[in-house]
Amino acid sequence: MSDTVDAPRNPPSLVGKRALVTGAARGIGARTAEMLVREGAEVAVHARRREQLDDIAASIHALGSEAICVTGDLTAAKSIAKLCAQAIKELGGIDIVINNAGVAAHGPVVDLEEEEWDQVMDVNLKAPYLVTQHTLPTMIEQGTGGAFVFNASSSARMAQAERSVYNATKAGLVGFTRCLAEEVGPHGITANAVCAGWIATEMAVELHQQMAEESGVPFEQLYDEGMRVNAMKAIIPPEDVADMMVFLAGPGARHVTAQSIYVCAGRSIV
């Protein structure tokens, strides 16, 4: 018989909590939804179209829960109001809101189309404000606290040529988070931003493919070099960001608010 004893596993920390995750079809959003479920939360997952949620819904089912699937265009205010109302109704309330959805664009200011600027602003900055506006009243009315977590970026405080619109939205999101925290703190509600560096997601692959085509550099070389531009020379998996989001939504972070937490392997100092 072995003399070793397995360490007791901590019980799930979010049992009875109800969460909405935007942009949950893949990448960081999907991994965050799965981790919320593992911690005992009931989760509503969002994507623009229902079929985009098939994989994450199946994954959550395999974890022994059932996902509430809500859809909507994050560039349309009425659509956002509808998806938030559906999530609150089917969850029976709301305790956690993960504003994860985002899009990226790059290019010189002189070449950036106004429509592209507007789309990135709408999805990355205006949509989180509207999702917050439509879920906050319920959270306050419940009187049991809650948590807002925003997917920002280490780019929020970086000066990068041809990244003007993306960086501007992430800097704005950090500012919004801090102001929101001051407003909702008296209700026991927290608001924090997770500022990620390059993360190994489908979006990162797509952006590096685009940059490889434009520069003529082989994709594999560009991707490996680009993803490792951080102090640890690491390629960061989306699970690492999801871990931080779930922590900030949980009881261990009940007095953590107005913060921008960097999950970037030191990208913000490079």
CATH homology superfamily name:
NAD(P)-binding Rossmann-like Domain
Quaternary state, please?
Answer: single chain
Sketch the major β-sheet.
7 strands, parallel
The CATH level-2 architecture is identified as 3-Layer(aba) Sandwich
H-E string: EHEHEHEHEHEHHHE
| Mean pLDDT level | 93
CATH C-level label: Alpha Beta
Give the number of DSSP strands. Answer: 7
Strand order of the largest sheet: 3-2-1-4-5-6-7
Describe this structure in words.
- It is built from 8 helices and 7 strands; from the N terminus they run βαβαβαβαβαβαααβ.
- It is globular, with a radius of gyration of 19 Å.
- Helix 2 links the parallel strand 2 and strand 3.
- The model has no long low-confidence stretch (mean pLDDT 93).
- The protein has one domain: NAD(P)-binding Rossmann-like Domain (Rossmann fold).
- A 7-stranded parallel beta sheet has the order 3-2-1-4-5-6-7, with helices on both faces.
- It is α/β, with parallel strands linked by helices and 270 residues long.
- The N and C termini lie far apart (51 Å).
- Helix 1 packs across helix 8, helix 3 runs parallel beside helix 4 and helix 6 crosses helix 7.
